[in-house]
Specification:
The chain is built from 15 helices and 22 strands. It is an alpha+beta fold. The chain folds into three domains: about 15-230, HUPs (Rossmann fold, 3-Layer(aba) Sandwich), CATH 3.40.50.620; about 255-330, Chorismate Mutase Domain, subunit A (Up-down Bundle), CATH 1.20.59.20; about 335-455, no CATH class. Strands 3-2-1-4-6-5 form a six-stranded mixed beta sheet, sandwiched between helices. A hairpin with a 2-residue loop joins strand 10 (about 315-320) and strand 11 (about 325-330). Helix 9 packs across helix 11 (about 270-280) and helix 11 (about 270-280) packs across helix 12 (about 290-300). It starts with 14 loop residues before the first helix and ends with a strand.
Length: about 450
């Protein structure tokens, strides 16, 4: 933990500067609820401290600390965050998580994914998530993306405002150097924690920060500021590519699918841009360049009597006749016993669904759900095939497949919908259908409502 130091000038960072940036990024400021992702480090601590000076403007502020449990000092960091929040008079939620790792995935990436999933689950409706990424982080991100061969979207680095969960993630410090934030904390006599794993040069970002950036700054002192300007230019270029992709998609769209004939008419680079736009708009990560080229080449050129497909992680792009469809690769795993989630909804009213989106169960005096009819622990999983539901009291139990077809739910959405089971019985399909066994009636004493916020 860094020691408190005597007060001195707070360099370039002040609450007034933060206020100006938030006004520029969020037209509704200060009439908003802000949730700060607080690690206890200098950057997020400076953000939280400065925000507390803006509360008199009408801003409401709280903080969330995610404990990954990966570092020996993790409990100590959580305790520090509690002390800081208490000193500032800010409500703090601390969530301990387990970091699952997929084969071939780095611990750094797995921890980041688990952290953002936890933040999404903890974020309240209409709340804005504020994260403390600063100018030096932006420089590191762009250089790492460049070294990984990223395209325009990757080189645009971190946007100041992005969609997140049911609301927005805002990064108001991207123009502020890291040292300015530390100087501000020293002036306020505020301590922060130091993560000693930042010295481990086995991690790419740490190697870049400790070995490469000092040499860059020695030659080009304004490197962080000028590279941030390049990132903004690239973000503008990406906006133009997105607009072109949207126009091409409008011409090729057949419902949620794409016309293979229309795609073949586009030049190769433009076709790849349209496909990338189509995939990311549906909520999937952009595929690597090689797989995108395969979709725009071999998949489109395959014989008409085949059903070629390209797997991109959890995503499957399939051509049926002259239409391209996006399908999760998860259903096959679900049929062979994919794991399901246990939802203790009374203690945890919000659940992040790995297929995308967030489920929430809330009390509602006019809601259609009888809360007393639900088991204390619900099971949530993806479709496996053959599920049945009784959508109307006294009516027949219907195959879910038929209900989805009648409702014209797009093919790529069907397998991503979370199914909720109470005991062995299917009682809800996201927030589209409730089984008669849990529907509220005249004698229901505790009503509720199930909501599903799709990605």
């Amino acid at each position: 933990m860094a020691r408190r130091a005597p007060s001195r000038a707070a360099a370039a960072f002040t609450p007034a500067l933060l206020e100006a940036q938030l006004r520029a990024l969020l037209p509704q400021f200060p009439r908003l609820a802000a949730c700060v992702a607080l690690s206890g480090g200098a950057d997020s601590s400076a953000l939280l401290v400065a925000l507390t000076h803006l509360r008199r403007r009408g801003l409401t502020v709280r903080a969330v600390h995610i404990d990954h449990g990966l570092h020996p000092q993790a409990r100590r960091w959580s305790a520090h965050c509690r002390r800081l929040a208490r000193e500032l008079g800010v409500a703090l939620s601390v969530r301990r998580i387990r970091v699952p790792r997929r084969r071939g995935e780095s611990l750094e990436a797995a921890a980041r994914a688990a952290r953002y999933a936890a933040l999404a689950a903890l974020l309240r409706p209409a709340e804005v998530l504020l994260t403390a990424h600063q100018q030096d982080d932006q420089l590191e991100t762009l250089l790492l993306q460049l070294l990984r061969g990223a395209g325009v979207a990757g080189l645009a680095a971190m946007p100041a405002v992005a969609a997140f969960a049911q609301g927005l993630q805002v990064r108001p410090l991207l123009a502020v150097p890291a040292e300015a934030l530390r100087a501000y904390l020293r002036a306020q006599r505020i301590a922060w924690v130091e993560d000693d794993s930042n010295a481990d040069e086995r991690f790419d970002r740490n190697y870049l920060r400790r070995r490469v950036l000092p040499a860059l700054r020695a030659r080009w002192p304004a490197a962080a500021r000028t590279v941030a300007r390049s990132a903004r230019h690239l973000a503008e270029a990406q906006q133009l590519l997105d607009a072109l992709g949207a126009a091409d998609l409008a011409a090729a769209a057949v419902g949620a699918a794409l016309s293979a004939r229309m795609l073949r008419r586009l030049p190769s680079a433009r076709r790849g841009n349209a496909l990338r736009c189509w995939i990311t708009r549906a909520g999937w990560p952009a595929p690597p360049a090689a797989q995108l080229a395969e979709i725009g080449g071999a998949l489109l050129d395959a014989r008409a009597d085949t059903q070629p497909q390209v797997l991109c992680g959890a995503l499957c792009v399939r051509r049926e006749a002259q239409l391209l469809h996006l399908l999760p690769a998860a259903p096959a795993a679900a049929r062979t016993g994919a794991p399901e989630l246990a939802w203790r909804w009374r203690r945890q009213p919000r659940l992040t669904w790995p297929g995308g989106g967030v489920l929430s169960l809330e009390s509602d005096p006019h809601g259609p759900l009888d809360l007393a009819a639900l088991a204390g622990v619900l099971r949530v999983r993806a479709r496996g095939g053959g599920e049945r539901l009784q959508p109307r009291p006294g009516g027949p139990r219907r195959l879910l497949k038929g209900l989805l077809q009648e409702a014209r739910v797009p093919v790529q959405e069907r397998a991503r919908l979370p199914l909720i089971f109470s005991g062995a019985r299917l009682v809800a399909v996201a927030d589209r259908w409730l089984d008669a066994s849990v529907q509220a009636g005249a004698r229901t004493r505790r009503r509720g409502r199930l909501r599903y916020a799709a990605p």
